[in-house]
Amino acid sequence: xxxxxxxxxxxxxxxxxxxxxxxxxxxxxxxxxxxxxxxxxxxxxxxxxxxxxxxxxxxxxxxxxxxxxxxxxxxxxxxxxxxxxxxxxxxxxxxxxxxxxxxxxxxxxxxxxxxxxxxxxxxxxxxxxxxxxxxxxxxxxxxxxxxxxxxxxxxxxxxxxxxxxxxxxxxxxxxxxxxxxxxxxxxxxxxxxxxxxxxxxxxxxxxxxxxxxxxxxxxxxxxxxxxxxxxxxxxxxxxxxxxxxxxxxxxxxxxx
Length: 256
Hints:
The protein is α/β, with parallel strands linked by helices. It has helices spanning 17-40, 84-102, 127-135, 150-161, 181-185, 203-216, 242-251; strands spanning 42-50, 53-61, 71-77, 105-109, 138-147, 166-171, 191-197, 220-226. Residues 1-15 and 19-40 have low confidence and may be disordered.
């Protein structure tokens, strides 16, 4: 058997003391640069008691958040069962990146006791909003409210119930399920944004019909059918979420 020979080449000379100090300083600066953005941006886990109901929610803070400064804010509802797992998913997909970059607060509650926000979960409002306004400086004390699927239904439900708190309402998808004349009229001063996937089932017809009614009544409303999209609209996730925030920005200027 031939002996196994290993060759590693000529050893490199060890760095001098001055070189080691410079390398150490450079590494420290690099670590600070990497962590600066992380330290300045944050997702907070919060809980409040409203009456006898404990509400768990998350708050996305913008990069370099200053508690003494007023920020635009989004009240965001998740879809499906509206659990905290759903909240975490929608923050990751639709809200965090743009909120941090654009200087928005995002408040995303989980359904209290499993009660959906367009049903019994609505009992936490408007007190939940007043408590948030006491904790954070919100631009002109108004929110944008948005959500997908059950979250979209929730967004319209809460907006129609307490219109004085909102600049805009967005469903992706979503619409006002209990569309009595009084509740429809409550949305008149808001910017209304409606999205639906063209591969969704049942929702496109209902949303398009309500969009037509809003438009006929002179409301400020947009409607977009997302090509190739099912119920969960991926074109509004990740970088596509910028479209949602563009509409929020426009709403503060009075919509188009």
